[in-house]
Structure formats: structure tokens, C-alpha cells
Amino acid sequence: TSMKISVLRRLFKLYGEDAADLVFYLKEEDADAVRADEAARHTLRRKYWRHALPVIQEVHEGGAFSNVNPTKDNWIAGFFGVYGASLVCVANYDEARVELQFYNSDSVRNKELFDKVFLHKAEIENALGAKLEWDRGDEKKSSKIFVSLKNISVSSESDWPNMARFHAEWTRKFHDVIVPYLKNA
Fold first, then answer.
1. Which long-range contacts does 18-26 make (Cβ < 8 Å, 24+ apart)?
2. Angle between helices 160-177 and 28-60 (to 10 degrees)
3. What pLDDT, on the 0 to 100 scale, is given for residue 184?
């Protein structure tokens, strides 16, 4: 259904129509099924974050993730003292990600922070021993730097230990290696 809606939105845009005119009426039983599916996803995510947060918080020793609680969302954010920047853990059905996000209301500020870090891309990737994804987001307000663990799913409890370890290790690495480039930012 979401793919169909995405296609319809593109068609509306192509023909210069307002996507807000794209209105659907669900049959009651369809709406109930959608609500049940959403509730199941939210329960699953809360359960994962209850599992993962202690692992993440332990490696940060009361730092970036100390005031974070389990959520129904597929992401959680930890903060480290630079306004408009955070470390983000993402738990999806096909991957886990750790991101350093720049999300100020001012797009220019986000690009400045990203560019400040990007100047040190080679030394950062060398220190981490990995290639990162660098998304300046020129067409968007926010920017991010991230690393992914593919072929792992929040829907599989047997993947949770690996996902939690990945989230813990990589948020710590990002904090220790990348965040110092943002000091005095």
C-alpha cells in the first residue's frame, strides 16, 4: 500500500496536482488491520529498545544516552553537548544504523557542521577502520554521517544482541572519533 501511495504522489507531482488532494477512505476492517499492525510494530520496537538501551548506556557510562527511554519509534537519539547534533541509533527491518545527525532549524548551520567534520573525512575513516556514508543533504534541511549493519532485523529477536552491540560500539566510536571535531562548533 505504501508503495502505491508513493507512486500516486509522484503522479500527482508530475501532473502538477496537490498531493493533499490524495485522500483515501479505508473500510473499517482495513483500518482495524492497519491499527493492529501499527500496534504490533510499536510493541516490537519498545521491546527492542528495552533490550538495547542498557547495552548502549553501559558503553557511554551515563553520557550521551543517559536520559533516553525505550520508544515506539525505530530510532533513539543521544546528545553530547553540541546544539542541533545527536548520535542516533536506528533499528529497521533490514538493517541497523548509527548516525551522527545535524538537524538545526537552520539548514545553513547543518551544512557548516557537516562541512567542518567532512574536512577530516580521511583521518576519521582511518581511525574508525571503516568507510562511512556522508550525506550532506543539499536538498534537505538536515545532514548526517552514518554506518550500517545490513541483513539484520528488529523483527528477529535472535538479531537483537548483534544489533545492540553494533549500536553501542558504533555510537561510542562516533562519539570518541568524530565528536571532537565538533567542539567549539
1. none
2. 50
3. 73
Mean pLDDT by 10 residues, the chain (185 residues): 63 66 56 68 94 96 91 96 95 97 94 97 98 96 97 97 98 97 81
pLDDT at site 26: 47
Q: Are 185 and 117 in contact (CB under 8 A)?
A: no
Helix and strand numbers, DSSP H then E, in the chain: 5, 5
- CA 24, 25, 30, 33 dihedral sign is positive
| Through-space distance between the first and last CA atoms of the chain, rounded to whole angstroms | 43
CA distances from 95 to 89, 90, 114 (A): 11, 8, 24
Q: How far apart, in whole angstroms, are the C-alpha atoms of residue 114 and residue 107?
A: 11
pLDDT for 39 equals 82
The predicted pLDDT at position 47 comes to 97
Q: What is the CA radius of gyration of the chain?
A: 19
Tell me the C-alpha distance between 54 and 66, whole Å. 9
Cα–Cα distance measured from residue 21 to residue 76, given in angstroms and rounded to the nearest whole number: 33
